[in-house]
Amino acid sequence: MKPQHWPLYGLRLRTPRLELRLPDLELLNDLASVAADGVHPPDEMPFTIPWTDVPPEERGRATFRHMLSTVADWSVQDWALGLAVLYEGRVVGRQDLTARDFAVTGQVSTGSWLGLAHQGRGIGTEMRAAVLHLAFAELGARTAVSSAMTDNPRSLGVSHRLGYLPDGTTVAAVRGAPVTLQRLRMDRARWEEYRSVEVTVEGLDGCRAEFGA
């Protein structure tokens, strides 16, 4: 796909095992299929928005539509970069990097999911390291924040390995019940101390201004 009118389609992040990029329609179809196949056991709900409660077909369709909306709704003041994660050439999950008023705050947030078949291999850590490199090394971010339910040790483990520090807790309503979320924060110095994944970035010059960097 030629990124003539939306240069973000030319952005590539690469780590030793992964490639992250904005999915074209073919990759988006593959990503939706991964979501439809399941991203967590049915007796768990690791997300504050229970988008995975619907049947597989609806889950895939919702993923497809939501990813398109992140392109359609993009603005310099409020952007959401949703990247397909490829492992050995196959889509295995999604990694988001989002920000509001980034030019003023210098703060980004991350979110992600992996297909069930691809969990437990360290991919989650590597793909978040990729977008943290984009944020801090390439866009000049000052802080990165994240959050996870206190009973979600995998997500919390990824954050701790990458250098995030606890930043208090908050309560959200999920499926009509309260859940406690651990907030996490990392500044540039902490990121530099903990960075351990080699990341290369391609195609950023053509779309840097879209981030408010």
From TrEMBL:
Matching InterPro entries: Acyl_CoA_acyltransferase, GNAT_dom, Ribosomal_N-acetyltransferase
SUPFAM superfamilies: Acyl-CoA N-acyltransferases (Nat) (SSF55729)
Gene3D superfamilies reported for this sequence: 3.40.630.30
Keywords recorded for this protein, A-Z: Acyltransferase, Transferase
GO MF annotation, one: acyltransferase activity
Limits of the N-acetyltransferase domain: 17-164
Protein name: GNAT family N-acetyltransferase
EC number from the UniProt entry: 2.3.-.-
Pfam families, per database record: Acetyltransf_3 (PF13302)
Coiled-coil boundaries: none
Enzyme class: transferase
